[in-house]
């Protein structure tokens, strides 16, 4: 069975780009346990994550899903979305949505994935405040450039 029966050429290209850029292994279908298989095995073995408290010792919320504690090792496509994961069930813990968001992208309880200290910078809706400010600055710069280009185009037409 060919890979094209599982993934579109666009999905293959996206996975290859992410794998090369981030130094991850590509989880081709049938070669390693998939993202979905890992989560299904956890639900089958332990039941839904919602039965447990959040795995973060400082959190008192109920878990919403199983989430990766540790580094990503593989990249794949799951439901049309490029996913980074590790095919090791021992690295999955039940976490609440907030704590899962904190660890997403290989962050930690203390730092975001870009290394900002959460205690110093704070968080906005579980996202690192410094990362959010940088994202907003980049968005504002793109909008300003688009407005300037539109103004220049309008002046040229007149």
Features:
158 residues, alpha+beta, 2 domains, two-stranded antiparallel ribbon, 7 strands, 15% strand
Topology:
Blueprint: H1 9-22, E1 25-26, H2 35-46, E2 65-68, E3 74-78, E4 81-85, E5 92-95, H3 97-103, H4 118-121, E6 123-124, E7 127-128, H5 129-157
Parallel strand pairs: 1-3
Antiparallel strand pairs: 2-5, 3-4, 6-7
Structure write-up:
The protein has helices spanning 9-22, 35-46, 97-103, 118-121, 129-157; strands at 25-26, 65-68, 74-78, 81-85, 92-95, 123-124, 127-128. The chain has 158 residues and is of the alpha+beta class. The mean pLDDT is 78. It has 2 domains: 1-107, no CATH class; 110-158, no CATH class. The strands form 3 sheets. The protein has a 3-stranded mixed β-sheet with strand order 1-3-4, covered by helices on one side. It has a two-stranded antiparallel sheet with strand order 2-5. The longest helix is centred in the last third of the chain and has 29 residues, at 129-157. It is built from 5 helices and 7 strands; from the N terminus they run αβαββββααββα.
